[in-house]
Structure to design on (453 residues):
């Protein structure tokens, strides 16, 4: 690794240093834009006791769902977890700790974490279970709760394209949580479909600057679709 | 006759105005997109990061990188934009979405809504619903008036964990269009062929009924 070149050559190298008990933030929404090969590497390593921060937890056998059967996840912070039978079993039996967090609050927690803001006030969740144990304050006559930022020992991210310096471009709704996740990791690892030379990406079109990125790897992706909905052609 | 899912969506669609940015939840709300009145342009916001959601793709157009908040493959309408989840909820929380339509298990006379979990039974999470109800000024809740067992979903007090407190003003059920204000339900319209008595029987919370309650027009 020289200068600003963030490229690593193996998934093993990409996830080096991840040990039991760490917090990992993952990008992705459902199965869209998930760092599927980095997740598979965590599974291969067998790291345990992880706290996962991700909007969802994959499905049985794919995405973050692959980390469930051998109990690699101790706790998950997510907004929606309904697509996964093993998840439900572990949650109901108490083997897995789940902190349900509103989707916008989760995104903002990551953004704040990456931006050096320790906490923020939001009206989301006031008067609900989400507000329990949290400071509440009035601003302009309305109640808001104090939500704390999240940072991770690792962040795992899927982008579409990068240059070797780690400047990132995302594609369509595969962007979702990935940009915020990228900013919130002590070590941010990004996998992409294509790596180009510095200068080949238009600086105006870069979604996340390379300053947030520590390791970069090019992979190939299954991109499994969760709900395949179509209309007949010719309409 | 109680309204069908499509008719509920159709009645909601009458509330759309030209130039509205609209967020539609999963289920009946999604169907509203099929009934946008002629001559009116709306743009659909999908909270996973898409403003200007189009119709479902043809088999050839399917793109795994382009889905809606229900994780369904979609397309982009002309003039669409893409953004990250923080930006998406900045527009929701910041009150920039003109109309939000979402489902619920229960609502009550104080405008509370419960829609995300049934303790011990169904724990899937709130997704973006808590942000949507906290951030939007203009919300329509769509749901059936009562459960299959005839238990009212319009209550004095929600019994399930809340998604939001004091944030709902309009509810469209298969029987009625109801406004919530001053700690009471107010019957605005009834479904064609449904009597005021039918509605009173299935509304557990206090319901204010005026002398003449019009039928919904389609």
């Amino acid at each position: 690794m020289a200068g600003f070149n963030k490229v690593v050559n193996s998934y093993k190298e990409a996830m080096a240093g991840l040990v039991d008990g760490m917090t990992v933030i993952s990008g992705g929404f459902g199965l869209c834009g998930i760092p599927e090969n980095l997740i598979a590497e965590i599974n291969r390593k067998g790291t345990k006791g992880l706290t996962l921060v991700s909007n969802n937890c994959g499905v049985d056998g794919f995405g973050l769902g692959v980390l469930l059967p051998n109990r690699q996840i101790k706790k998950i912070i997510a907004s929606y977890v309904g697509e996964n039978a093993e998840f439900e079993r572990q949650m109901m039996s108490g083997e897995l700790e789940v902190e349900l967090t509103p989707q916008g609050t989760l995104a903002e927690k990551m953004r704040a974490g990456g931006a050096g803001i320790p906490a923020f006030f939001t009206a989301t969740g006031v008067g609900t279970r989400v507000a329990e144990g949290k400071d509440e304050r009035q601003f302009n006559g309305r109640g808001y709760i104090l939500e704390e930022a999240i940072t991770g020992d690792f962040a795992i991210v899927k982008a579409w394209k990068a240059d070797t310096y780690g400047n990132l471009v995302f594609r369509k709704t595969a962007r979702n949580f990935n940009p915020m996740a990228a900013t919130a990791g002590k070590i941010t690892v990004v996998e992409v479909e294509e790596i180009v030379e510095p200068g080949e990406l238009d600086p105006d079109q870069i979604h996340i600057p390379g300053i947030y990125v520590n390791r970069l790897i090019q992979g190939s992706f299954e991109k499994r679709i969760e709900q395949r909905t179509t209309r007949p052609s010719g309409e | 006759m109680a309204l069908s899912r499509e008719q509920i969506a159709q009645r909601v669609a009458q509330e759309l105005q030209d130039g509205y940015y609209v967020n539609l939840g999963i289920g009946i709300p999604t169907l509203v997109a099929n009934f946008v009145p002629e001559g009116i342009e709306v743009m659909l916001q999908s909270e996973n990061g898409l403003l200007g959601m189009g119709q479902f793709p043809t088999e050839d157009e399917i793109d795994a990188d382009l889905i809606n908040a229900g994780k369904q493959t979609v397309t982009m309408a002309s003039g669409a934009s893409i953004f990250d989840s923080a930006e998406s909820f900045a527009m929701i929380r910041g009150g920039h979405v003109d109309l939000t339509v979402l489902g619920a298990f229960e609502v009550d006379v104080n405008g509370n809504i419960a829609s995300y979990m049934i303790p011990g039974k169904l724990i899937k999470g709130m997704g973006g619903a808590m942000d949507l109800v906290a951030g939007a000024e203009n919300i329509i809740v769509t749901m059936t008036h009562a459960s299959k067992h005839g238990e009212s979903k319009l209550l004095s007090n929600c019994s399930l964990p809340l998604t939001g407190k004091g944030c709902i003003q309009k509810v469209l059920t298969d029987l009625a269009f109801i406004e919530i204000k001053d700690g009471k339900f107010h019957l605005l319209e009834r479904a064609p062929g449904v009597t005021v008595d039918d509605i009173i029987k299935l509304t557990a919370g206090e319901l204010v009924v005026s002398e003449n309650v019009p039928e919904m027009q389609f």
